[in-house]
UniProtKB/TrEMBL annotation:
One Pfam family this sequence matches: ROK
Similarity annotation: Belongs to the ROK (NagC/XylR) family.
Residue runs in coiled coils: none
The protein's name in its UniProt record: ROK family protein
SUPFAM superfamilies listed in its UniProt record: Actin-like ATPase domain (SSF53067)
C-alpha cells in the first residue's frame, strides 16, 4: 500500500480510524476501526487507547509510510498539537499538553508524521476531496447535531468558521440550530418529551406540532445561512450531522427563507457520512 494515510476522527466518546487511498480518494474499507474511549480519563490512558487502534491498523496493513491525520474537536492549537479543551466534559486531562508529541511517543511514530486538523473543517474538506462538494472551489458546511459545527472552503482548503456562538435572536446560533433546540421547542409546544430529532421525525405523521417544530427549524436555519452565504459567497451548501438526515422535513421552510434573501444555491447532504472527517483529515497529506 503506497499512497495511503491513516485518517482518524476523534469524537467525544470514541475514535474512528481508517486508511485512505489518496489516489482514489476512498477509504480502504477493510481497515475501518471504531473503539470507545473514556474521554474523561487520565491523559496517558486516553493516548494509549488511541494508539491501540492506530498500531493495530498499521501492523495489519503495513502501509509504505506510517502517516496519520487526526480530526480533533476544539479549541486546539492544531499546528503545535496542544489541546486547549477545558470544561467540556471531554478530554479535560489533555488541556495544555502537547498531544502530538504524546501520541508520537506512545505509538513510536515520528512527530512530523502526524497532522492535526479541526474536526468541523475536516468534515467539509472530506466532502470537497471526495464527496458531495467535489469539484467546487467555494463551499460552506454545517454539522447539525448536539452542537453546531460550521466550516468554509476557499480555493479547496477548509477551515473552521467557528460560528456556533454567533449572536442569533435572543441567544447564540447553537441554541437554535442543534438537537437540543428540537427537544426544548417540542416540549414547550406539546408538554411532551422526545429524545432526539430521529424520535421526533418518527411521530411526525399526523402530528402538526412536530411539523411546526421542523418548519420553525428550517426558518431559523435559513436566517442563519443567509448571513453565512453573504459573508462567504459559496457555490454550494453542505449539511452533515444527524439532524441533516431529516432535511426533507424542514427543506421547504429552509428554501422559502433563503428565497427571501434571493439565495438559490444547491443544498446537499454530505455523502460520505462518518467517512467525511476521516477522508478530510487524510487529505491534508495530499
Amino acid at each position: 500500500m503506497s499512497n495511503v494515510v491513516l485518517g482518524i476522527d476523534i469524537g467525544g466518546s470514541h475514535i474512528t480510524a481508517a486508511l485512505v487511498d489518496l489516489d482514489t480518494r476512498e477509504v480502504v474499507e477493510a481497515s475501518w476501526r471504531r473503539a470507545r474511549v473514556n474521554s474523561m480519563g487520565e491523559a496517558d490512558a486516553i493516548v494509549r487507547e488511541w494508539c491501540v487502534v492506530i498500531t493495530e491498523i498499521f501492523n495489519t496493513f503495513k502501509p509504505a509510510q506510517q502517516k496519520l491525520a487526526l480530526a480533533m474537536p476544539g479549541p486546539f492549537d492544531y499546528e503545535a498539537g496542544i489541546s486547549l479543551m477545558k470544561d467540556q466534559n471531554k478530554y479535560d486531562a489533555l488541556y495544555g499538553l502537547n498531544v502530538k508529541e504524546l501520541l508520537a511517543n506512545e505509538c513510536h511514530i515520528p512527530v512530523e508524521n502526524i497532522h492535526m486538523i479541526n474536526d468541523a473543517a475536516s468534515f467539509l474538506q472530506g466532502e470537497v476531496f471526495g464527496g458531495a462538494a467535489k469539484g467546487f472551489h467555494r463551499a460552506i458546511g454545517l454539522t447539525l447535531g448536539t452542537g453546531l459545527g460550521s466550516s468554509r472552503v476557499l480555493d479547496g482548503v477548509a477551515e473552521d468558521a467557528d460560528l456556533w456562538k454567533a449572536p442569533f435572536k435572543d441567544s447564540i446560533a447553537e441554541a437554535y440550530i442543534s438537537t437540543r433546540w428540537f427537544v426544548k421547542r417540542y416540549a414547550a409546544l406539546s408538554g411532551k418529551t422526545v429524545k432526539d430529532v430521529k424520535e421526533l421525525s418518527e411521530i411526525l405523521p399526523g402530528n402538526p406540532l412536530a411539523q411546526q417544530v421542523f418548519d420553525e427549524f428550517g426558518t431559523n436555519l435559513g436566517i442563519f445561512l443567509a448571513s453565512f452565504v453573504e459573508m462567504d459567497k459559496p457555490e454550494i451548501i453542505i449539511l452533515g450531522g444527524n439532524v441533516a438526515n431529516a432535511l426533507p422535513l424542514f427543506e421547504k421552510s429552509l428554501t422559502a427563507e433563503l428565497a427571501k434573501h434571493n439565495i438559490t444555491l444547491p443544498i446537499k447532504c454530505a455523502t460520505l457520512g462518518e467517512k467525511s472527517a476521516i477522508v478530510g483529515a487524510a487529505s491534508s497529506w495530499r
